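User: Protein folding is very new to me. Would you mind checking the protein record under this note? It all follows right here:
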Amino acid sequence: MEGEPTLRLRIFDLNCWAIRYLSRQRQERIRLIGDKLRQEGFDLVLLQEVWSEQDYSDLKAKLASCYPFSHYFRSGVIGSGLCVFSRFPILDTLLYQYSLNGYPYMLQHGDWFCGKSVGLIIMKISGIIFNIYVTHLHAEYCRDKDAYLPHRLVQAWELAQFIRHTSKAADVVLLGGDLNMHPEDVGIRLLRGWTGLRDAFAEATHFEVS
């Protein structure tokens, strides 16, 4: 209605590349990410590849004053790597693990062990119900010879179905994460077609990087 205030949310989304024993300067990276998040004061933070639950706990302790609500999604052998920090209360959470997720014998890639998933958090902000999804689809590794394209397409399909079947009561639906796809890839087109979501990257007229 005319005259009603506009609700604006600042949302931060990042693949942290915080893999234990593999990512260089992992602990320093997590520390700096925490410093930046505390400095900026976003409304909602969606993170991927926070593989160590201790890293999550360290972030939670550092960010408690500005993001009092958080959730870590546990999945697979080494965890989903997905976590959320929020200024607003989290009403409920749900995790769905994708049925197709790489090969256990491809040890150097490791996607199978982490149990790639989509996490859902439900929030109510200014009387508006938000369904917020965070996910990390299978890595591409080689775009020219993408052996994992079928896996990623199945994940995109399951993600679209999960969003459709869990978002009926929501007023606003947001999806963040690392989809490992370009804006016009078939998986992104499938997601847009089945959910009605719009791609913020494709819709934006410009980006400001500070």
